[in-house]
Specification:
The complex is a heterodimer of chains A (394) and B (381). In chain A, 27% of the residues lie in helices and 16% in strands. By secondary structure, chain A is of the alpha/beta class. Chain B has one domain: 3-Layer(aba) Sandwich (Peroxisomal Thiolase, Chain A, domain 1), CATH 3.40.47. Classes of the chains: A alpha/beta (394), B alpha/beta (381). The interface between A and B is large, with 70 and 73 residues.
Chain lengths: 394, 381
Amino acid sequence: MTHGPGEVVVTGVGLAVPGAGTPEALLRRTARPVTGPAPEPFDTAARIGRRGHRYKDRATRLALCAALEALRNAGLIPSDGEEVTVPGDTMGVVASSNLGNLDTACLTAAAIAERSAVDLSPMSLPNASSNVIASWVAIRHGLRGPNLMLCNGATSGLDAVHWGATLVAAGRVRRAVVIGVETHNAVVEDLLGRSAGELLDGAAALVVEGGRWAEARGARAAAALGPYERRAGLTGCVEALLPDGAAPGVWFTPERYAEGPAGAAPVPGAVPRYDVTGAVGRASGALGVLQCAAAVGWLARAGAGAGAGADPDAGAGADPKAGAGADPDAGAGSAAFAVGRGAAPDPVPASRQALITSGDDTADAVAGLLLRPAPDRHDPHPARAPLISMECSR
Amino acid sequence: MSQLVTGAGAVASVGEGVDEVFRALCAGTSGLGELRGFDRERYRTRHAYEIDDRPAPGTDLPGRATDWLLRAVGEAAAQAGLGEDLSEVPVLIGTGLRELRSAELAWRDGTPFDIGRLHFGTALRTRFGAVRTHTFSGACSASLYALALAADLLTTGAEDTVVVAGVDTLTESMYGLLDRVNSEPPDRVRPFDRDRRGVLMGDGAAAVVLRREESGAETRALGRVRAVSMNCDASHVTAPDPQGIARAVHEAQWRAGVKPGDIDLVLLHGTGTQLNDAAEAAAIAEVFGREVSGPLMTAIKCMTGHTSGGSGLLSLIVALESLASGRVPPTLGLAEPLPGAEAFRFVREEAREGGDLRVAQIDAFGFGGVNAVAIVERAGR
């Protein structure tokens, strides 16, 4: 099977999260193993070194770590280098963070009130701009396509994945690295009214790529992006993605989603649920990207034959029989038409798809996305992908 | 493929509403004033282009940027006939600094502020029922970036109508850090002048309604967006790269299917800093070549200050008004153009009747090397 013209796939995943080195490790339900100490904070120097990073804020360093791993995982940078091996203007950056530079803004304002602007360090200037994270990722890897920074509240990470896919679908770029990152510090803890232990200090990154472009360079797709919706509430969002109550194979719930009385949840009780923030802390603008990374782990596990049903953790907190929840017929019929705006009928049954939702009914909106197994590559001689017209001009 | 602008809204230091803002700019009115909301004793720089809506001098309130954004979006939506219901319409907001000013006040002074309102989705939902809202924090090109994304949503057929907006207010952190790095504090913004001393920030918001082109809709349109480019220098975290800017200008013209000789008017980014204006001049000179003396050029930050993420869209609205009216606001404070811009046809000192203006280019560049350039066209008459 070859990729449709508009298909966008995930070709790389990278994490910079304490205690979770792989996407599958995000499929945990507690912050740490039952025994043993809490994981150490993620050591950015171990991955990206110390040189050249002195004046970058913590969120930027974490983002660089996750982006580096995702690019390497996608085969877009050599094992010994950092510059991408594809033309820099064929690749964009979309970063998401709500809290990343709050400390620079607030500490600088306080320092001015205590003394004066003359005493500030000029090296803080870049960090006063919220897009510093996306900028540094572009500089580090030579990514000259569109460079977006989402600061969009609870849904921001999932929105960022959507915009990465939109850049690809619109032909602006062939691929984009999408990063979600948050950190904690005195300013963040104070403004959120939460302790450090409750909050994520980490980053996740995905490479999203046009299916045909991935295929043209022989890259393996770990997942395919399905439709995305942003709606007023959780129920409306899920219904838009999965009409007629089709049951997904797994549900990545909003942060700290509290299951209401039986039948109140918009997803059947038999579907296993994961709240990735249980393992890594409240994730704010990083959540959606972390969820996608975790969903890639779930798809890999399902694809390896184990399926969600073999997951000993699956369904904890939901129906105890949820492990068997991958009812092969569940919703498959209606899922064939589980489409977003203008999408083609969907050949992948809902039960093989991961439903991801960020934001809850108290947020300004709920964003949802379906992540699916990547199509098998059967054609040994994929047609040479034509250059899009834009690139002919360069 | 082009899109129609069917509504516009603006709030700035020089006025409220598109008509008032454009009239003020054409009259050479500047929003320059002494710092209103910060303690002046803490800075060498003492001026900015602020909206004078605080309760008393030296005091500050949270949520001012949000208020202006809602007013600009309201004006644009009303003009486009959308009314107050944006529940089905995507709203893309470009901002440099979000509500970081409110966060500064909350953390330092204990001013009550809901941190969930750092982005603008909650306020837009409350006022307009909007849920498909996206706050992009893309430095000083953010609102033109948002325009590019909106154009893509219309081009791919995903949407029929998108609201695009931009907004920013001064943060003390950004104002203070700019003060720290300026060698000599500027007392006004003098784009492209040999003796320019740097940038001063300004308050403001701008919004447009973008619609897919359809027959019959053009008669009431304010103008047409032909294309918007967006790229990234990927070279320096604050300094601009003339090559990256030139690529963005060239790509916008290529996407729009126009040549430099087709451009009648350029709204320059023109921040009045040494580096930015020199880089922009070099890029314009390179792309326009022998045509560089053709289009009229102006830069409105001399009167509005640098309205950061909202500045690109404010310039775009001014460009559409200029195309419609033939009047082009002046670049105040431009006595002698910087080296390399001597051949540019700047509009100076007072507004100029430009005659038959059809196509305009709008530049916006930001920290991190994020560049966006729009090409717009006068609506048919």
